[in-house]
Write a structure and sequence with these properties.
The protein has helices spanning 11-19, 35-44, 46-49, 90-108, 146-159, 187-197, 216-227, 243-254, 258-263, 273-284, 295-302, 314-319, 328-379, and strands at residues 2-6, 25-30, 54-57, 76-79, 116-122, 131-133, 165-170, 172-175, 202-204, 210-211, 213-215, 232-235, 241-242, 269-271, 309-311. The chain is of the alpha/beta class. The mean pLDDT is 90.
């Protein structure tokens, strides 16, 4: 069995490729602007390529992104490549996530031996829906941002085909595994960082709003398991947790941090949509404010917190013999502890850099003083 993975050097693509090592011959598609970048990515995937698995350039923005892949070899495709920022411009989202998926579909239709095409989508392809979201095809009810729209549109492209398609809608990944180690920072971590620094005092959304949070380990395991299941639509959910519980859990961790204790910061309070937009507008007017760099990604996500929805995962559970729920709040606590450590390390590095700079300035000043002394002596 030969599996092509697009975005094989991405956060989840690497994990899925590693999980398939023992069973599949892998073709690992990576985006590379030139041979130098391709060689760097091959080196980064050396633990896979040295076993004989092929690393090839696949750029979904190209007219023929699969020029280096033989369609006759491919029996399964895992389409993991995508732009995943909440603040995507419409044109970028369409070029990569929609048109790029159309090119994946065109290639898949040339793979005579194809048994499965898995598309890694997002739970938020549900857009502005509220309430129970089932593992089924979704209509267009509007979207909070272009990222959500692009994932929904890509799903539609594939579901309109006669291909053996599996849509796996993914949750927000907040940690590598139960240890809480953070492999990739996203809007979840950036928002907690603002709370930890006291830069955000309001929580957008209803405290009862359910969140779907998971580890990368759970998500990659779900992808591998669903490759063996029947084609269809599945939600990779490990059980919802309320927004208010997430905030309380994170602050319980923060309040054990001596640095946080010294600042005596209050816990944030929930607010309605209008109040949060007023806060965001005020922050955007402060030039150089600490909120400005994260507002573009925070605002498109915050809107979802006013649209409570619960994602059903009945089909996933029935099709995955090894399914197990993890304690989402325990993962939140572990990720919050990892974040506190990361912030402390960053402060230590910053303090060390300032100290080195001050030492260099003192040395330079001393050298200049000595030079002036020698010059004065020579003049006498």
């Amino acid at each position: 069995m030969t599996t092509l993975i697009t975005g094989a050097d991405g956060y989840l693509g690497r994990r899925i490729a590693t999980a398939l090592l023992g069973s599949d011959d892998l073709v690992l598609g990576v985006r590379a602007a030139d041979n130098a970048e391709l060689n760097r990515k091959r080196a980064a995937l050396a633990h896979l390529s040295h076993l004989g698995h092929q690393v090839v350039p696949v750029d979904l923005r190209d007219d023929d992104p699969f020029a280096y892949v033989d369609p006759g070899r491919i029996t399964r495709i895992v389409h993991a490549a995508a732009l995943i920022r909440f603040d995507l411009e419409r044109a970028d989202a369409e070029q990569v996530n929609v048109t790029g998926t159309a090119r994946v579909r065109e290639f898949a239709e040339r793979c005579d031996r194809l048994d499965r095409l898995m598309f890694l989508s997002t739970l938020y392809a549900a857009g502005r829906r509220r309430g129970d979201i089932r593992e089924s095809r979704l209509g267009d009810v509007g979207f909070v941002n272009h990222y959500e729209w692009s994932k929904w549109a890509a799903e539609e492209l594939l579901l309109d085909s006669d291909l053996p398609v599996t849509i796996l809608r993914l949750p927000t990944v907040i940690a590598e595994d139960a240890t809480g180690a953070i492999g990739q920072f996203n809007v979840f971590h950036h928002t907690l960082r603002l709370f930890h620094r006291g830069l955000l005092t309001l929580v957008p959304g209803d405290p009862a709003t359910p969140l779907s949070l998971a580890t990368a380990e759970f998500t990659a395991d779900a992808a591998v398991a669903m490759l063996a299941a029947n084609p269809g639509i599945y939600h990779a959910c490990a059980g919802p947790v309320a927004l208010g519980e997430v905030i309380e859990t994170a602050f319980t961790v923060f309040e054990a941090d001596p640095d946080f204790q010294r600042r005596m910061l209050p816990r944030p309070v929930s607010c309605d949509r209008a109040a949060f937009l007023d806060l965001a507008d005020a922050a955007s007017r402060l030039r150089g404010g600490a909120l400005q760099p994260v507002l573009p990604s925070l605002l498109p996500f915050a809107e979802q917190l006013y649209l409570p929805k619960t994602f059903r995962a009945d089909r996933l559970r029935a099709a995955w013999p090894g399914y197990r729920e993890h304690d989402s709040l325990a993962v939140v606590a572990a990720a919050a502890r990892a974040l506190v450590v990361a912030l402390a390390d960053r402060r230590a590095d910053s303090d060390a850099a300032v100290s080195r700079g001050a030492s260099s300035e003192r040395a330079a000043s001393g050298s200049q003083t000595a030079e002036k002394g020698r010059a004065h002596a020579a003049a006498r």
